[in-house]
Design a protein that fits this description.
The chain is α+β, with helices and mostly antiparallel strands and about 240 residues long. The chain is built from 3 helices and 16 strands.
C-alpha cells in the first residue's frame, strides 16, 4: 500500500512564501524620515532656486506620505522627488511634487501631510529637493551634496518632465525632510484598516485556484510586524492500493 500526498500545490505555496519575504524586505529597511533634521539653522538662500539633495539619495522603495520643514518666511514652495534620467548626466525627471502653502507660523518645525491619493511612489536612488521663489528653508554649510539650478519655473516642474540641474553645487544641510512609508507597511495597514486581516494579501487572488484542490487555504496577516503565516485546513490524505 502506498500513501499519496494530499493535493496541495506545493509550488504555489513556495511562491507565496518567497513573495512574502520579498515584500517584507521592502518595508523593513525604510526609515521613517529622509533628509536633514528639522532644527533652527543660521543661513538661508537667495531667491529663485531649484535644489536637489543628490548626496543623500533615498535608500528604499516606498512612498512619501508627508513633508517636514522649518520655515523662516511665509511663502509657498514646491517639494520635489526627482530621479536621475540618464546615468552620469545632470538630467533629472520629476517623479512627484507637492505644493506647500505659505505658513503663518514660522521658525518652528512644521509638517504637511499628504492624502493617501497624493502619496508619491519612490524608488532607491531617487532624491528629494525643492523649488522656491522666496527662500523659506533654513540651512547650514555642513552635510551632503546639493546641486541647484536658477530660472526653472515652478509651473514647468511637472511630473514626468525632464530638467537639467547644473547651475552649481554645495555641501549643506537643509531643515527639510520627506516622511516615508515602505510598501509592505502600507499594504499591511491598508488591510488592517479595512478589517480584512483573515484574507490578506494573497487570499482573494488565490481563492479560485486553491478551491480546485479540495482544501481551504487561509492566509493570515499580522500588520504589527509585517509577517505572514499559512494555515492549511481540510487537507485530506488519500490512499491507493498498488
Amino acid at each position: 500500500m502506498a500513501t499519496v500526498m494530499c493535493d496541495v500545490d506545493l509550488q504555489r505555496l513556495i511562491f507565496l512564501l518567497l513573495v512574502s519575504v520579498v515584500l517584507k524586505a521592502y518595508g523593513s529597511d525604510c526609515p521613517k524620515v529622509h533628509g536633514g533634521d528639522i532644527i533652527p539653522r543660521s543661513l538661508t538662500d537667495s531667491t529663485g532656486w531649484t535644489m536637489l539633495n543628490t548626496g543623500n539619495p533615498i535608500t528604499c522603495d516606498g512612498y512619501v506620505t508627508a513633508w517636514r520643514f522649518y520655515p523662516t518666511a511665509s511663502a509657498e514652495f514646491l517639494a520635489l522627488v526627482m530621479r536621475p534620467h540618464i546615468a552620469g548626466s545632470n538630467q533629472y525627471v520629476v517623479v512627484g511634487r507637492t505644493v506647500i502653502p505659505k505658513q503663518q507660523v514660522l521658525n518652528t518645525a512644521r509638517e504637511f501631510t499628504l492624502p493617501e491619493t497624493d502619496w508619491i511612489s519612490v524608488k532607491i536612488g531617487d532624491v528629494i529637493g525643492f523649488k522656491f521663489e522666496t527662500a523659506v528653508l533654513a540651512r547650514d554649510n555642513e552635510g551632503t551634496m546639493f546641486i541647484f539650478q536658477h530660472g526653472i519655473s515652478q509651473h514647468d516642474l511637472l511630473v514626468h518632465t525632464v530638467h537639467t540641474i547644473n547651475g552649481g553645487s554645495s555641501i549643506r544641510t537643509q531643515s527639510f525632510q520627506a516622511v516615508l512609508k515602505g510598501y509592505q507597511l502600507a499594504v499591511n495597514e491598508d488591510k488592517y484598516e479595512k478589517g480584512n486581516s483573515s484574507e490578506n494579501l494573497y487570499g482573494r487572488l488565490e481563492q479560485d485556484q486553491v478551491s480546485r484542490y479540495n482544501h481551504r487555504m487561509e492566509v493570515y496577516g499580522k500588520s504589527s510586524n509585517g509577517y505572514h503565516w499559512l494555515s492549511l485546513q481540510s487537507c485530506r490524505r488519500r490512499q491507493q492500493r498498488v
